[in-house]
Amino acid sequence: MREMIKARNISDVKKDWEFLNELLICYLSLNPKNTHDIIIRVFADIIVRLLSSSLCNPRI
């Protein structure tokens, strides 16, 4: 998941939310239900990191 986001060069969660949401849904649909909690935790961690980095490095 991180590699997909990095390859897409995503830095603005709001602007790229549709892609991020679709990526999450894709990962959930491709993986067994017993892994969904891990996938969601990783996704949340990535979103928090993206939001934190955008707050530390605001675009001018």
From TrEMBL:
Its main location: nucleus. Keywords: Nucleus, Repressor, Transcription, Transcription regulation. Residues 1-49 form the OVATE domain. It is found in: Nucleus. GO terms for biological process: negative regulation of DNA-templated transcription. Pfam families: Ovate. GO terms for cellular component: nucleus. Transcriptional repressor that regulates multiple aspects of plant growth and development. This is Transcription repressor.
